[in-house]
């Protein structure tokens, strides 16, 4: 993949996104006994791609503002701050992961 241009990689990612969204829409359409046109799937994929690009820009900006080169969970929480439900879900996941890591670290110290 190192010899592929950035545009080729972008197109492959967009194609994979379109395919995944198409599968989800097809599953939901079958479940709800509805139909979705290929144009709808394409428009939805374009909208999701635009949202992903905006999220990526925001996350990079937050990490850069904090003088970091790596996006952290703090950046994700900051991004989700205006959507309380999403913020709660992300915070719960982050807190559970931190607790799991602390327990694993404590277990490892007990063995030494």
From TrEMBL:
InterPro entries: CENP-S/Mhf1, Histone-fold. Gene3D superfamilies: Histone, subunit A. The keyword Hydrolase does not apply. Keywords: DNA damage, DNA repair, DNA-binding. Pfam families: CENP-S (PF15630). Belongs to the TAF9 family. CENP-S/MHF1 subfamily. This is MHF histone-fold complex component. It comes from Podospora pseudopauciseta. The gene is MHF1.
């Amino acid at each position: 993949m190192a010899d592929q241009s950035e545009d080729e990689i972008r197109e492959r990612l967009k194609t994979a996104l379109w395919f995944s969204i198409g599968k989800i829409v097809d599953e939901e359409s079958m479940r709800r006994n509805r139909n979705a046109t290929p144009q709808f799937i394409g428009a939805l994929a374009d909208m999701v791609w635009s949202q992903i690009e905006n999220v990526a820009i925001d996350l990079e900006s937050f990490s850069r503002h904090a003088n970091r080169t790596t996006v952290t969970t703090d950046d994700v929480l900051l991004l989700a701050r205006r959507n309380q439900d999403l913020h709660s879900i992300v915070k719960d996941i982050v807190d559970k992961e931190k607790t799991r890591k602390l327990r694993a670290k404590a277990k490892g110290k007990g063995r030494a």
